[in-house]
Amino acid sequence: MPAGPEIRPYRPADREQVARICLLTAAGGGDATGVYSDDTLMPEVFALPYVEYAPELAFVVADPSTGSGQRADRVLGYVIGVADTAAFAEWWKREWAPGFAARHPSPGAPTGHAPAFTEAQLIEAGTSPDRMLIAELADYPAHLHIDLLPELQGRGFGRRLIETLRAALAERSVPGVHLGMDAANIGAREFYDRLGFHELPSSRADSPLLGIATS
Ligand SMILES: CC(C)(COP(=O)(O)OP(=O)(O)OC[C@H]1O[C@@H](n2cnc3c(N)ncnc32)[C@H](O)[C@@H]1OP(=O)(O)O)[C@@H](O)C(=O)NCCC(=O)NCCS
User: Fold this and answer.
1) What is the average pLDDT score of the chain?
2) CATH architecture of the domain with range 6-174
3) Which residues lie with the beta carbon below 6 Å from any ligand 1 atom?
4) Which residue's alpha carbon is nearest to atom 25 within ligand 1?
5) 2-24 mean pLDDT
6) Cα dist. 83→72, 77, 87, 111, 208 in Å?
7) Residue among 76, 185, 191, 209 whose CB has most ligand 1 atoms within 8 A, to mutate
8) Atom in ligand 1 nearest the alpha carbon of residue 186
9) pLDDT of residue 112
10) Tens digits of residue pLDDT in 38-97
């Protein structure tokens, strides 16, 4: 009998699948394909720097029974994080921003959609990591992103991925983890509330900022 989806550590070979899942869930939880003039923008801001900087804090849900060809298994979801947001922002400035700026020198023509970020804001986010330096970093130095394809949602994997990352952070003596989210993503907010995340003082109605202790 096929084993079904399982949580496992991220591997470099998962990179493209992680980027694709990011794109497919980046419009308030739904598909952001074609929302921006370049589909690589979202993953280059919200997924790929994370797996490059901290692959040991990335976990995927993969289904070994649905792989094909050279791909050993199919990735259906992930949680990615960094333990020290301030150190990550420094790395981003040095290692990620220059290449990002060269690949994305200016925003493309507006698409007519109304995403949470305009293309210009997304390009700004890719070049200015100081946006990540929230006031609560002493207690919540880590931050995370989590995305599951629709077929994996509602099966308990989101909860288990968050618990996996919290445990990995606790092992590294990181006291807390935070995340920023799109206020329009009502389902995600219900999920975080259910797991025990709470609003941090810097949270704003249009851009909620949530945190939780790691243990
Ligand atoms: C949001 C997301 C990570 C949740 O993961 P999930 O695997 O679907 O959630 P789970 O099945 O683990 O649910 C965990 C708990 O949250 C609750 N929950 C999850 N989604 C919910 C929703 N939309 N409404 C109400 N409760 C919800 C579940 O009922 C469950 O409660 P229980 O464990 O006490 O029974 C996932 O749906 C997802 O990736 N969505 C698309 C991308 C996205 O929005 N990412 C977050 C960006 S900030």
Assistant:
1) 94
2) 3-Layer(aba) Sandwich (3.40)
3) 25, 29, 146-148, 153-159, 181, 185, 187-188, 190-191, 194
4) 190
5) 95
6) 29, 20, 9, 35, 20
7) 191
8) 23
9) 67
10) 999 999 999 999 999 999 999 999 998 776 655 578 999 999 999 999 999 999 999 999
Overall pTM > 0.70: yes
* Ligand 1 atom at minimum distance from 160 CA: 12
- Ligand 1 atom closest to the CA of 25, numbered from 1: 42
The one-letter amino acid at 45: V
Give yes or no for residue 104 having a pLDDT over 90. Answer: yes
Give per-residue pLDDT as tens, 115-160.
Answer: 788 899 999 999 999 999 999 999 999 999 999 999 999 999 999 9
pLDDT band at 109; cut points 50, 70, 90:
confident
Residue for token pair 């994305």: 104
Long-range CB pairs of 19-27 (<8 Å, 24+ gap) are 19/43, 19/47, 19/48, 21/47, 21/75, 21/76, 21/77, 21/78, 21/147, 21/148, 21/149, 22/46, 22/47, 22/145, 22/147, 24/147, 24/149, 25/147, 25/148, 25/149, 26/147, 27/113, 27/115, 27/116
* Ligand 1 atom 32, closest CA: 194
